[in-house]
Specification:
The structure holds two protein chains of two kinds. By secondary structure, chain A is an all-alpha fold. Chain A has 13 helices and two strands, in the order ααααββααααααααα. In chain A, helix 1 runs antiparallel to helix 2, helix 2 crosses helix 11 and helix 3 packs antiparallel against helix 4. By secondary structure, chain B is an alpha/beta fold. Chain B has one domain: Rossmann fold (3-Layer(aba) Sandwich). Classes of the chains: A mainly alpha, B alpha/beta. Chain B: Pfam families: ABC_tran.
Chain lengths: 301, 255
């Protein structure tokens, strides 16, 4: 209980810092910009960590996250293509990239009656490399859009929300929150499947259906997130571990705690990204810079 | 009506035939041992009986109704399956593990109620794991963990218990406690089928045996009639000595 209160307080501090800290004085225009960043930070950090928690549970592997399964890279490829072709981030292409790579990885790993979990990660990593190569080609061809794609690959919360994209972004966030609420219903299945697929099947879980729903819902969520803020790494990998260290193995607590901790972490990282150097850094750079030592500390403790 | 009945079951992976036209039944109150050499198909048969695998041909009936026309939840309310060894990737408490046996009775978001907790207490009591209740599962020995898995199976309130070599990695003491536990559960009315490769344990505890060899039923019947030198020579390809257990009067095999 005290831990829950503590992480909520830290979350609120992260929001406050996200609004108050920055190189310029706070006026109404700056306030609006920072508020939109805070909203996007909560959304993206929460979703990525939530998906990491889902996928690590589903595949019983602590290394799984939207990146290692290829769906984040697929989404980045789709989004880069959108920038190259239309000069703007295109959510549809980002989903298609994410779902396409997800489908491919799933097909490679599928065998009769189940999924080969090792092959799944191998396929995911290989597909990530392929997507990265294709993005490089787009960047070389793009020239003018290079800078924009670079920020997309690293993740950036400072996109300007204006009259043309406001409705779309609000709709995407609403869909994501709906999906998160829907996926929460699987907390028991995630607990059980950590003991192996046979145990899960013996307890009455339809493994095939469950894996499909969770895998592709998270691919969709990642596609949605990347299409708005770009591909932010590390949140989906480390936050579920932090959550398990704090709250134990049960997913009924971990899914929610991962969302909250992911949001908090990304808000801190974004605030840092605005003050570390004279220029704003892509937030993904900061999540790795802060995340790696933190991760090592947690495991060496 | 039998608890489980399999009729003309065929099962194969790609082109490798695993189960070749097996018909068998598990009657109510039975304590059945499924024995046979490695790779004979006995573990596959067990997975077919509880619906984890689906036969390519043939039908399985659960209390007279086609198994595959029932939902996986309904099956899990009737049949509990205990795998050979469970790897716990997450370190749940023993009580949490046993509580997972209530899954087939729960809807999404429905919290555990008094009925669930009563079932869990009863299961932990029967499997004698109450004292470990708050211990992390991975801090237990493999014999104790196996008892927790059986407790989880009992929390399902099953009418049928299917176990795949439940004693294979256990020392003499734990082999004994697990088999005694199964015998007690059987006396309380649960029908049990257990895959064994230890013929002597099977002979000591099972009422009837089915011997599977190369995907077919080689023999079935009481241990006293089934375990003989000729069978062991033909199925396992070795010469053995068989004597009668001095107290229980069932055959025991010596190399």
């Amino acid at each position: 209980m005290t831990k829950t209160i503590a992480i909520i307080i830290i979350f609120l501090i992260a929001i406050a810092l996200g609004i108050l800290v920055g190189p310029t004085r706070l006026d109404s225009e700056i306030l609006q910009l920072r508020l939109s960043r805070v909203v996007l930070g909560i959304f993206a950090g929460g979703i990525l960590a939530f998906c990491g928690c889902l996928l690590q549970g589903l595949f019983g592997n602590p290394l799984v996250e939207p990146y290692t399964l290829g769906s984040a890279s697929g989404a980045a490829l789709g989004a880069s293509l959108g920038i190259f072709l239309f000069g703007a981030i295109s959510p549809i292409l980002a989903f298609l990239g994410s779902l396409g790579v997800g489908f491919f990885v799933y097909t490679i790993a599928r065998i009769e009656g189940g999924l080969l979990r090792d092959r799944l990660i191998l396929a995911g990593v290989v597909m990530s490399f392929l997507c990265s190569s294709l993005v490089m080609i787009i960047m070389v061809l793009g020239g003018r859009e290079l800078y924009e794609i670079l920020y997309l690959l690293m993740g950036y919360l400072g996109i300007i929300i204006n009259a043309t994209n406001r409705v779309m972004i609000i709709a995407l966030i609403a869909i994501s929150i709906g999906l998160v609420a829907f996926l929460y219903r699987y907390h028991r299945e995630l607990d059980i499947i950590s003991q192996g697929t046979e145990t899960a099947a013996g307890l009455g879980i339809d493994i095939q259906k469950f894996s499909l729903v969770v895998f592709f819902s998270s691919a969709l969520l990642v596609g949605l997130t990347v299409s708005i803020v770009g591909a932010i790494g590390f949140v989906g990998l480390i936050i579920p571990h932090v959550s398990k260290l704090l709250f134990g193995p049960k997913h009924i607590r971990n899914l929610g705690a991962s969302f909250l901790l992911g949001a908090t972490f990304l808000l801190f990282a974004d605030t840092l990204s605005r003050v570390i150097t004279v220029y704003e850094l892509p937030v993904g750079v900061v999540t790795s810079l802060v995340g790696v030592p933190f991760f090592i500390y947690l495991y060496k403790r | 009506m039998n608890a489980l009945e399999a009729r003309s079951i065929q099962f194969y992976y790609d082109k490798t035939q695993i189960i070749d036209n097996i018909s068998m039944s598990l009657s109510r109150g039975e304590f059945l041992g499924i024995i046979g050499p490695n790779g004979a198909g006995k573990s596959t048969m067990l997975r077919l009986l509880c619906g984890i695998l689906r036969p390519k041909q043939g039908e399985i009936q659960l209390f007279g109704k086609n198994l595959h026309e029932q939902s996986q939840r309904t099956i899990a309310q009737n049949i509990a399956f205990v795998p050979q060894e469970t790897h716990f990737a997450l370190n749940f408490s023993v009580e949490d593990v046993v509580l997972m046996g209530r899954y087939p009775y729960k809807r999404p978001f429905q919290p555990e109620d008094q009925k669930d907790h009563t079932a869990v207490e009863h299961a932990m009591n029967a499997a004698n794991v109450e004292q470990f209740r708050n211990r992390p599962i991975n801090s237990l020995s493999s014999g104790e963990r196996q008892r927790v898995v059986i407790a989880r199976a009992l929390a399902q309130a099953p009418r049928i218990l299917l176990l795949d070599e439940p004693t294979s990695h256990l020392d003499l003491h734990h082999q004994h406690t697990i088999m005694e536990l199964l015998e007690r559960l059987n006396n309380e009315g649960i029908s049990i089928a257990v895959v064994h490769h230890d013929l002597n344990l099977a002979s000591l505890y099972c009422k009837n045996l089915i011997l599977i060899h190369a995907g077919k039923i080689y023999a079935e019947g009481k241990p006293a009639g089934l375990l003989n030198k000729k069978m062991v020579r033909e199925v396992y390809g070795i010469e053995v000595t068989i004597v009668s257990h001095p107290e229980k009067n069932v055959p025991q095999i010596f190399l």
